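User: I'm designing a mutation panel for Sulfurtransferase and want to avoid disrupting the core. Could you give me a predicted structure to guide residue selection? Please restate the sequence first so the numbering is unambiguous.

Assistant: Good idea. Sequence first, for numbering, then the predicted structure tokens:
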Amino acid sequence: MALDIGGKTIATDEEGYLENLNDWTPEVATAMALAEETPVALNDEHWEIINFLREYYEEYQIAPAVRVLTKAVGKRLGADKGNSKYLYSLFPYGPGKQACKYAGLPKPTGCV
């Protein structure tokens, strides 16, 4: 599978995750979100979580599972954002899976 962004082909695996993490750009994230079965227009709340995930990955070299993500978001961004209800409202296909995909990260461990 692949995404075509501005004339450049970006390789993805069968689930839509980037094959090369260095191919990520905000435009790639936007294209991934719009390519969903139910297209998503990324807003500031989405970007806050996507950028948080990219920083988390840079620091720990791992994409967090949902429970870890929820706890870490709560610590950094506050309890109103560090809960499953909020994260699922932004990423209904699963905050771990969907948000990590948009952030250009590997699929989190433990996600099916």
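For picking mutation sites, this is relevant: The two ends are 19 Å apart (CA to CA). The longest strand covers residues 2-5.
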